[in-house]
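Model it.
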Amino acid sequence: MWMYIDNGNYFKAAIGVAISIQPLEGPFDYMGSIRPHGCESRDMAISKMTTEMNEDGVGERREPPAVFKHRNIYYMVTSCCSSLNPNGALVHVAESMLGPWATLGDPCTGGEDEEF
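Modeled.
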């Protein structure tokens, strides 16, 4: 799992990696974080794009979608459009990039007030 990693004053601006043998259930082991080529990284994958999939699952504006494929299933991790304010993440799954997408819920622990 790729993720955005930062500190309280937003100076870290790095990417983090966590791995799991069971990506649907976890647990995930945090491997660490880096700044690619020494540069700030503030989004996971697709720069500031929003997603709206009302008929197939999401039903609200989400950003920035991080999509990956594991064992023929597509996974999309998103968060609410709230700038740098904490909010809950959601993970969605589909057998095709075109959907339909099913929302599995928040893959993070700690509560919405701790998720960025």
